[in-house]
Write a structure and sequence with these properties.
With 321 residues, this protein is an alpha+beta fold. The chain is 42% helix and 23% strand. It folds into 2 domains: 7-205, Jelly Rolls; 218-313, Orthogonal Bundle (Arc Repressor Mutant, subunit A), CATH 1.10.10. The chain has a 6-stranded antiparallel sheet with strand order 2-4-5-12-7-10, sandwiched between helices. Strands 3-6-11-8-9 form a 5-stranded antiparallel sheet, covered by helices on one side. α2 crosses α4 and α6 crosses α7 (238-245). The radius of gyration is 22 Å and the shape is globular. The two termini are 23 Å apart. Residues 222-321 form the HTH araC/xylS-type domain. InterPro entries: AraC-bd_2, AraC_XylS_family_regulators, Homeodomain-like_sf, HTH_AraC, HTH_AraC-typ_CS.
């Protein structure tokens, strides 16, 4: 099956010392914002690397403050690189964030923000994508996911998000990058969604009874394996795999663990590693480097591919030709 086309990365940049222009830009990117009457004259420098499912920004702002409306369709997570931000969600709490930490603008809450001279690394994700990833992991309904605090669960969780945001920027922030492999893109978006759900308090952490996964028979596992093996070159999700198997994601994960001691996505990773191994065995002179093969099969970096390959095959990857 042919590999899907790469996912385009669109780059935009904006800089202005006009307070009106600055607030217009912030409103377009995050949620509708209005400056406080006593706010300073904000100026901004913004740049964005955007894919169809994620935006990674860099932002430099002068001291200001204002009110921002809810934006239920978008999850805005801001890593503070230098400076500070105070976010007040009213009854949902207030958080002050300093350098090397992060906060979340609760999608269904109005927020009052104040900040000093600020350098930040915002990440914007569709809430629907985050809800899909959480539903696959937990079995809860996507529509039941709500974030309940702007503050990370702990300092260690905050550091986890900062590392995630920096990793996303490394992959997408290079101006020379105009597109990204479709498998890598899906892995990056899923990584960001899973990290957001792990770092910031939400209803998946406090949910009550969720119906058990049910009895998924070996034929469903076999259908899932066949689907993954024949679609390994495509950016398929756990939901896609479960649909092909005739079940739901949470039940399929449970079935794989019971029957094979693994998970569907573990199997998919091994299928892609095996495909990369076959490509290298068949490669002749000029067929492409190990790094090209690694990228083709969705490995986010050459180092990760080399480690996984050596663990599976007992030697470093190299073309046979």
């Amino acid at each position: 099956m042919a590999s899907p086309p790469d996912v385009p990365v669109t780059r935009t940049a904006f800089e202005s010392t006009s307070s009106d222009d600055a607030w217009d830009a912030l409103s377009r990117m995050y949620s509708r914002g209005r400056p406080h009457l006593e706010s300073g004259a904000a100026s901004v420098r913004l740049s964005t690397a955007a894919t169809p499912a994620m935006d990674v920004d860099t932002a430099t702002l002068t001291p200001a403050g204002g009110a921002f409306d809810p934006n239920p369709d978008q999850l805005n997570i801001i890593t503070v690189l230098d400076g500070w931000v105070t976010l007040d969600h009213g009854r949902a709490g207030t958080v002050t964030t300093h350098a090397e930490s992060a906060y979340l603008h609760l999608p269904d809450h109005r927020a009052d923000l104040r900040w000093g001279q600020l350098e930040a690394l915002p990440v914007r994700l569709p809430t629907s994508h985050v809800a899909r990833v959480v539903a696959e992991q937990t079995g809860m309904r996507p529509e039941d996911l709500r974030f309940t605090s702007a503050r990370p669960l702990s300092d260690e969780h905050a550091r986890l998000w900062v590392r995630t945001a920096r990793a996303l920027f490394r992959e997408l922030g290079d101006p020379a990058v105009s597109s990204v492999n479709a498998l890598v893109h899906l892995a990056l978006v899923d990584l960001a969604a899973a990290a957001a759900a792990e770092v910031f308090p939400n209803t998946a952490m406090t949910r009550g009874y969720v119906a058990g996964p049910g009895d998924v028979r070996p034929p469903a596992v076999r259908r899932a394996v066949a689907f993954m093996d024949s679609h390994a070159s495509l950016p398929i999700t756990l939901t896609d795999i479960a649909d092909a198997a005739g079940t739901v994601p949470h039940a399929l994960v449970h079935a794989f663990r019971r029957h094979d001691g693994t998970t569907p996505l573990d199997h998919l990773g091994r299928a892609r590693l095996a495909a990369a191994h076959d490509d290298l065995r068949q490669a002749g002179p000029g067929a492409g480097s190990v790094d090209v093969v690694a990228a083709r099969w969705g490995f986010p970096g050459p180092a990760e591919f080399r480690v996984a390959y050596a663990a599976e095959y007992g030697h470093p990857p190299a073309p046979a030709g």
